[in-house]
Design brief:
The protein has 280 residues and is mainly alpha-helical. It folds into 3 domains: 3-61, Arc Repressor Mutant, subunit A; 93-154, no CATH class; 166-279, no CATH class. Helices cover 46% and strands 10% of the residues. It has 11 helices and 9 strands. The protein has helices spanning 3-19, 25-32, 36-48, 96-102, 105-125, 143-154, 175-189, 195-201, 216-225, 257-267, 272-279, and strands at residues 52-55, 58-61, 93-95, 140-142, 166-168, 171-173, 213-215, 238-239, 245-248. The protein has a 3-stranded antiparallel β-sheet with strand order 7-9-8. β5 (166-168) and β6 form a beta hairpin. α7 (175-189) runs parallel beside α10.
């Protein structure tokens, strides 16, 4: 090998080790594409000349500074003296999951009904946006709203939930069961009605988000995934003449009740006189 070529190969090996400290001899051979025997000879000469360090079969330039690993800054706890009168933190928002855990089912139902109705009214009547993004994701509820609802429930204010008894065919029902009884009566008196015909008579928009009823299989999935939004007891499921099982929603409030009863009047389930007695 000529001295010029040998010097060039030695320089190439040195440059590679400089850029890739702690490399193995095999890596030098592969990357520099110099014959294995030649590389090993160059590495040996450089080691003997004191230009390379050889530790644990890894090569590094003798004068190459070691890389210093940066240590993460230590977290220092700082203690501040706070006057007694301001020690209590001011909480303005409460996570929904905390509210759901702490507040009882009645209060949760009230909060959810009011939020859903108000937000849906705004979204559907004022803003035009794609259907897939209409449902708002609510993660926080203001403390004052929670307190107001709790106080209203404790004081007997039902905040959209009307618990007075309604009479249908001589029996007393609250609103949710009243709506269920009316639909059950219609299905019983119309054994040939199909699900599509039923949905035409009582369209989903009567109860926003949930619809007045759903096929029981779909309703069961919704109930399992979250809160109970449909009557799920076996004796509350309606069976159409074609065999389709239907579950009626329990999300009946003062906001959607007038529209539902108007549909019942149109379908001949109740009369206008009976409706006038309901709201009297």
């Amino acid at each position: 090998m000529s001295g010029k070529k040998e010097n060039a190969q030695t320089e190439r090996v040195l440059m590679f080790v400089e850029k890739n400290p702690k490399c193995e001899a095999g890596t030098v051979v592969t990357k520099t594409k110099i014959a294995r025997s030649t590389v090993y000879g160059i590495l040996k000469n450089l080691r003997e000349a004191g230009k390379l360090n050889y530790v644990n079969k890894l090569y590094t330039l003798a004068d190459q500074p070691a890389k210093i690993k940066k240590q993460p800054a230590k977290k220092v706890k700082v203690f501040v003296m706070v006057p007694e009168e301001v020690k209590t933190p001011v909480i303005t928002m409460i996570p929904v999951d905390v509210v759901n855990d702490v507040v009882n089912d009645v209060v949760n139902d009230v909060v959810n009904d009011v939020v859903n109705d108000v937000v849906n009214d705004v979204v559907n009547d004022v803003v035009v946006i794609p259907e897939e993004v209409k449902t708002p994701v609510i993660t926080m509820i203001p403390v004052d709203v929670v307190n107001d609802v709790v106080n209203d429930v404790v004081e007997g204010k039902n905040f959209g939930r009307d618990f007075k008894k309604l009479i249908f065919k001589g029996q007393e029902f609250r609103k949710g069961k009243y709506v269920h009884a009316c639909l059950a009566s219609y299905v019983e008196n119309n054994p040939t009605v199909t699900y599509t015909q039923l949905e035409t008579l009582f369209p989903p928009h009567l109860v926003r988000t949930f619809g007045l009823f759903r096929k029981s299989e779909e309703a069961r999935k919704i109930n399992i995934a979250g809160k109970q939004r449909y009557h799920g007891r076996r004796d509350m499921i309606l069976t159409l003449g074609c065999g389709t099982e239907v579950s009626v929603t329990n999300q009946i409030s003062r906001y959607n009740f007038p529209g539902i009863t108007a549909a019942f009047i149109k379908a001949g389930i109740i009369t206008e006189v009976e409706y006038a007695m309901l709201v009297a």
